[in-house]
Design goal:
The protein is an alpha/beta fold. The chain has 15 helices and 9 strands. The strands form 2 sheets. Strands 1-2-9-6-5-3-4 form a 7-stranded mixed β-sheet, with helices on both faces. It has a two-stranded antiparallel sheet with strand order 7-8. The chain is globular.
Length: about 425
């Protein structure tokens, strides 16, 4: 895909060098100016905007978009609940079909991003005419070494999404780059995976100043989610590609160091941009279809219990590293070395009494996450009691990435062992 001629100060490049045919990341100018430029380049005139309700209420960001896009905006939807319930997705589908847009633009976090991905598939497939119709298109992977890109969608009649999408993220979860989305089924409160190579963003616009419009814990915890992408990639026994390893290490350092600097100075826009660029590197392996492990598997199902997306990684990721260490300690060293070889990160960790020779990856991540001010136990995120833990363990086994954990997770007893370690 040819990169368009840039505006002065604009940096626009392929999201990934191996996926040049589609998908750009764009930054260097105000988000509204870049959005207008990309809409013009696509030649689109009917925009459906899905915007964070809190940003619309508390900032002038939506008005900034309306000012530059004007009458091209044919519809605006405010807000999607956390973890993207199916009923929210369906409400968006109904609105979008009424507006008949030729481009969807989002401004907000991961739940909004996931919602419009599912919406884009529904718009391409008019026969999906109800919430129950969504049941026909979520994937049910079962193969141990499954590359999720290779899993056929349940209905062979599903057409690929064709509507253009521009995502302007306000968190670091980085789902806008990937061909996956997680949507919570209200019938059993289980988060389902939707996979299709047509549903990632055509353009992702990064604007570091947007990070100051969300609470600090949102930015920090979503950054931890990106760190989780990196460490589960590096610790995986299924990853041998040096390019993938390099991307994960680079993303890990950019995000981990950037978050530490932002704790000291929230207005350090270069460090905030570093975390955004780092989240792009962090999601590389997932976008290639490389399966992750237990932290993501448990985290996906912890979300519907009312736990924020990033907080799931804050609690579970270090525990999974501890659980897997008996079989992948050498792989975990790839992440440890990347962190300790950065002088800034190493100094912060040393100040917490940690040592590269004495402390494992679980300890090191625990230290980092505490430095970010993040919760570290299930009790801190409101998940308590045997009944809830048992329910979470049961739901976790529906996740494909249990099977691709370095120690395959096949029983509720295993999940409960991990949960008890961070019960609090």
């Amino acid at each position: 895909m040819a990169t368009p001629k840039s505006l002065p100060g604009e940096i626009t490049r392929p999201s990934f060098p191996w996926r040049e045919e589609r998908g750009l990341v764009s930054y260097g100018l105000p988000f509204s100016e870049l959005a207008s430029a990309h809409v013009e380049r696509f030649g689109k005139t009917r925009i459906f905007a899905v915007v964070s309700a809190s940003l619309a209420k508390n900032t002038d960001l939506l008005q900034s978009l309306k000012t530059v896009l004007g009458e091209k905006i044919v519809g605006v939807h405010l807000g999607v609940k956390s973890h993207t319930p199916w009923d929210d997705v369906w409400a968006l589908v109904v609105e979008a079909r009424e507006c008949d847009p030729d481009l969807i633009l989002t401004l907000g976090g991961g739940s909004i991003t996931d919602a419009v991905k599912a919406v884009s598939l529904c718009l391409a497939n008019p026969h999906i005419d109800s919430i129950d119709g969504l049941s026909s298109i979520w994937v049910k992977p079962s193969s141990k070494d499954a590359n999720l890109h290779d899993i056929p969608i349940n209905s062979s009649e599903i057409k690929p999404a064709s509507i253009k999408m521009i995502n302007i993220p306000t968190t670091l979860s980085a789902g806008e780059y990937s061909p996956y989305c997680g949507v919570t089924d209200p019938r059993d409160n289980i988060k389902r995976m939707f996979v299709h190579n047509s549903i990632f963003a055509d353009v992702v616009i990064l604007h570091p100043e947007l990070g100051t419009t969300v609470p600090e814990w949102v930015w920090m915890s979503s950054g931890v989610r990106s760190i989780d992408h990196c460490v589960e990639t590096l610790a995986s026994l299924l990853v041998n590609d040096e390019e993938v390893i390099t991307c994960a290490q680079k993303g890990l350092v950019l995000v981990a160091r950037g978050l530490l600097k932002l704790r000291k100075d929230p207005n350090d826009h270069q460090s905030r941009l570093d975390t955004q660029i780092g989240s792009n590197y962090a999601i590389d392996s997932i976008c290639r279809g490389i399966p992750l492990g237990g932290s993501h598997a448990i985290g996906h199902q912890l979300g519907p219990f009312g736990v924020a997306h990033g907080h799931t990684s804050c609690v579970i990721c270090p525990a999974i590293m501890k659980y897997n260490a008996s079989v992948n300690s050498e792989r975990q060293k790839l992440a440890l070395d990347a962190l300790w070889n950065d002088d800034f990160i190493a100094q912060v960790l040393s100040n917490r009494g940690l040592s590269s020779g004495r402390n494992d990856l679980g300890d090191t991540l625990d230290g980092l996450f505490r430095e970010y001010g993040m919760p570290r136990t299930l009790k801190e995120v409101g998940v308590e009691g045997d009944k809830k833990l048992q329910e979470l363990a049961t739901q976790t086994l529906t996740e494909a990435w249990c099977q691709t954990n370095p120690i395959p997770i096949t029983t509720e007893t295993q999940v409960l062992e991990i949960l008890r370690a961070v019960e609090g």
